[in-house]
Amino acid sequence: MARDTDVLVIGGGSTGCGIARDLAMRGLEVTLVERGNLTDGTTGRMHGLLHSGGRYAVSDQASATECIEENEILRDIAGHCVEETSGLFVQRPEDPDAYFEEKLEGCRDCDIPARVLSGREAREVEPYLAKDVKRAIEVPDGAIDPFRLCVANALDAEAHGARIETHAEVIDLLREGDDIYGVEVRHESGPGKRTHATPGTTEEITAEYVVNASGAWAGQIGAMADLEVEVRPSKGVMTIMNVRQVDTVINRCRPKGDADIIVPHETTAILGTTDEEVADPDDYPEERWEVDMMIDTLSDLVPILEESRTIRSFWGVRPLYEPPGTGTTDPTDITRDFFLLDHDDRDGVSGMASIVGGKFTTYRAMGEEIADHVCGKLGVQASCATAEESLPGSENLARLEDAMDDFGLRSPVARRSKQRLGSRSQNVLETDEPNPVICQCEGVTRAEIQDAIEQSGSDLNAVRIRTRASMGNCQGGFCCQNMANELHPTYDEETTRAALDELFQERWKGERHALWGQQLSQAMLNYALHATTMNRDRDPANQADDRQPDDGTLEYAAFDGGA
Hints:
Elements: E1 5-10, H1 14-25, E2 30-33, E3 49-50, H2 61-77, E4 82-83, E5 87-91, H3 97-109, E6 115-118, H4 119-125, E7 135-139, E8 142-144, H5 146-159, E9 163-165, E10 168-176, E11 179-187, E12 202-212, H6 218-223, E13 231-241, E14 249-252, E15 261-265, E16 268-272, E17 276-277, H7 288-298, E18 310-321, E19 338-342, H8 343-347, E20 352-357, H9 363-378, H10 397-402, H11 412-421, H12 425-429, E21 437-439, E22 444-445, H13 446-456, H14 460-467, H15 480-485, H16 493-511, H17 517-534, H18 557-560
Parallel strand pairs: 1-2, 1-12, 2-9, 5-14, 12-20
Antiparallel strand pairs: 3-8, 4-8, 5-7, 6-7, 10-11, 11-12, 13-16, 13-17, 13-18, 14-15, 15-16, 19-20, 21-22
């Protein structure tokens, strides 16, 4: 029987988009469905670390080896998404010497480049490190932009013929006997250009093969076909500081524990993280004490954090998987390796496989393994090319590095714009139109905003993900309205106001856990600016006043009378 597509991929995170790209490049017809925006799940809620593998060099050497291999590949194929920060595993006086030596030996066993720095040498690299740091191990960690990388994979998959369907939630797996042959999705109204069907309608999409790449939600998807997928979701908190207190990834060199990493990312530093198993990846507590603990504990490594400003916090859920019967109770002990579950071999149900576990750094390798598996099932003779073919934006990294002033713009704004855009920078930035800075905190220009709107439509959160506009110190207080203004005249007033509201609300969600000190003052300033200049708090003035029109609109002169 003819199917709608060769392969149906469930999940629009890094793994799902990587799988879609790999299969589409091999010539298969691919459809990817995602219930929200791309990166809506775990991918959009990570700390931005490109693992060297050093983190797992003692406890999980298989994962460590995968990490360093993929680290090197991603630097080649996605250079415009990577900042080569390097990393330090730092030993404090109370941290055991034996573990430090184990870490060093483990790195070398896994072919992870590693060298020992004295405490003085480590502080020369990072001056804000605590004065009593004993020594450190330097490894090739990096910072990576998960949003940019995920979107680049999706764009390349589309360029090879894939259908990327966002805001399409899987509500059932289509199963006949012992064969899965597709999914039923419910379409919802999503902002931007990617509304492919009428909101509220359902669609059955049939496929020769289904790939469950839904991460922490893989168990819920499997249950739709009475399949048990033993994912153990584990939540972790990340806290974002207002500036980069460090320029190097800082890890605590001890066996394990919460609050042990600082990742410099663009203009900020991200503190992480916790590891607590939860029952539902969509419903778990977000506790203020977790944020306090991040700052208090990591201040032992970088004391300046105690007096620094926290601008927001967010939580993510890891898709941890452990084979049945292992019996691990502590989620920090669960392997970070990934597993391909062939439900035909495992459960006697053909037509679907699940890919579970793993890390963002190994998303491409996960995609390659399951793409090989799918091709074997479908009798397709095609090899993987994702380790050699650059993603959109990274095709000419040398030009990006060597020609930062091509446009006669030597400012940090021009440099950051070109770093974000990669090899697309000339096409986007070379314009005869005025190109002012729209987001001052992150140095995002009008040309970049307009380029992102062309890709994303009216979805200003998607524009944010592509450009980092509104993600700086003011958290959108000074630039959200500037971004919304760029939607005119393509979009009408109602659409523009709705897009502005959604963007500002998304920014507020992460600020709720950081309302003290200077950040409380910033939040109050943002409120005052938006409430008083644009009536964003919807203050009706005095609706009974005779000066108010009968049609429900506001006569703003009523405010002048002090009503």
